[in-house]
Specification:
By secondary structure, this protein is α+β, with helices and mostly antiparallel strands. The chain has one domain: 3-Layer(aba) Sandwich (Aminopeptidase). Helix content is 17%, strand content 28%. It has four helices and nine strands. Strands 1, 2, 3, 4, 5, 6, 7, 8 and 9 form a nine-stranded mixed beta sheet that branches. Helix 3 links the parallel strand 5 and strand 6. The structure holds coenzyme A. Coenzyme A binds next to strand 5, helix 3 and helix 4.
Amino acid sequence: MLQPAVAHLATPSPRWPSILRPIAMTFRIRDEKPGDWHAREALLDTCFGPARLEKTCERLREGRLPAQGLSFVAADTAGLVATLRLWHIEAGDRAALLLGPLAVAPARRSAGIGAALVEHGLRRARRLSHRAVLLVGDAPYYERFGFAHDLAAGFTLPGPVDEDRFLARELVPGALAGARGRVVGAGEFMREPRVAPHHRAAA
Ligand SMILES: CC(C)(COP(=O)(O)OP(=O)(O)OC[C@H]1O[C@@H](n2cnc3c(N)ncnc32)[C@H](O)[C@@H]1OP(=O)(O)O)[C@@H](O)C(=O)NCCC(=O)NCCS
């Protein structure tokens, strides 16, 4: 079920040229729709390059649908500017979510769009009764949302990963207490996997 979009006012970064700082650009966060597919794929290509489908996290997502109600985009008058999805996983004996990919168009970075998407996603996940979220990403960015390596340290991923970038956050205190073991994908499989033509070889 699609939820109403949430409008946000972008906060211009202090690093922006002073002439641009007074310009408050709005963006809205809404649930991803099927019609976003091409723009989202193009954005992910721009942000991660063609090797994005070789990442270890992709092994947890490939061929599967994202978790219900947990795919979001941020859009402005020019179109889609950011994307975030969360996915069902099993982390040892615990049901959890995998966060990612998160990507913001280069021209729209440092305006709070990434943070707004992550916070929106975590709020929705909590509302849908999910208990914990794992991700692979830069700790200096994700720590501000409560992600920490300690909570992920007992788990192993299906491929190589820089341990410092493997992070977790509990949505319910104690949700990951004492948990350890393999992380596996747990989402529903797509009926007909949709693969962009230029990604067929990599996928
Ligand atoms: C990481 C990313 C999503 C951040 O989006 P954003 O909208 O610019 O983020 P926010 O506006 O919420 O926060 C920006 C702040 O975070 C900091 N930041 C951005 N990426 C960071 C990183 N990898 N590590 C540490 N800090 C980071 C910025 O320096 C900025 O600080 P400033 O406000 O002092 O300039 C965006 O840079 C991006 O799409 N990068 C490429 C894809 C990627 O790495 N995705 C995350 C891994 S899944």
